Amino acid sequence: MPVLLPAALEPFLDLLRCPICRAPRLDPDRGALRCPAGHSFDIARHGYVSLLTGTRATSGDDAAMVRSRDRFLSTGRYTTIRQAVASLAAGTASEHGTVVDVGCGTGYYLAGVLDQLPGARGLGLDSSVRALRSAARLHERAAAASWDVFRPFPLADGVADVVLDVFAPRNPSEFHRVLRPTGRLIVVRPTGRHLAELRGQVPALVTIDPAKEERLHKGLDPFFEAVVTEQIEYSTPLTGQEALDLVGMTPSARHLNRADLDDDGVLPDRVTVSVLATAYRPR
Ligand SMILES: C[S@@+](CC[C@H](N)C(=O)[O-])C[C@H]1O[C@@H](n2cnc3c(N)ncnc32)[C@H](O)[C@@H]1O
Ligand SMILES: [Zn+2]
Prior knowledge:
With 283 residues, the protein is an alpha/beta fold. The chain has nine helices and eleven strands. Helix content is 27%, strand content 25%. Helix 2 packs across helix 3. The radius of gyration is 19 Å and the shape is globular. The protein binds S-adenosylmethionine and zinc ion. S-adenosylmethionine (SAM) binds next to helix 3.
């Protein structure tokens, strides 16, 4: 039986571009979206559309990482970050805006923003189909599509009121192209203190490069101007499972033997959460 067009995808048909020939429209056609030239993109039964075709995704979270991320985010330990992102978005977008979450993961932050904007619609892009299975279901106004951040986005110019990039790779020129002139880019990234206690105990955890902030500004500066930056920093208790999940949702997890982490006393029972959230206006 053909997969039905997910309701959340419908408002995006006019905003999507064919990723192959850039045709300005995709139409639903028996479980797929099709451009006038006949390029066709399957709608997965999990509800996301596979716009990334022809190559195997070379990046993106695997199933175990997505499970860890999902479990950890559902504990509410990052609610404060989600609220900060949602209020930055609500301060800039109209209630009926379009929100694009790049590297959306499980859709946790996109759903938080859509809750704040009752008439808005959201599209999550990610190269991980495991993550997209969750992102396509997390919120009734959120659609999801597979995409690689480093390729030209399958979206028309100037269609987004908000572009979110939370702990995800960035493509400044494409962020700029798809945003309306009045829109905002919201970028969340860790500071050097983020999860410091855990990094101290688990050397394989990727360290936060101090030059990262400078690189972020260099990359965005030709296209964007920072409007406001919020620092979100707090200490949170951490159960053993939560600590394992925080490690498990990072790429370092691939190099770690879980038994190495399970030893008593190795994992901290509190951790510092420290991130910066900046809203940028397009130049
Ligand atoms: C650290 S996670 C953040 C996910 C989500 N924004 C969150 O904070 O919960 C990074 C995300 O970027 C995705 N990702 C990595 N490389 C990508 C690429 N080249 N194109 C699209 N997504 C990518 C991963 O699959 C993952 O979901
Ligand atoms: Zn086409």
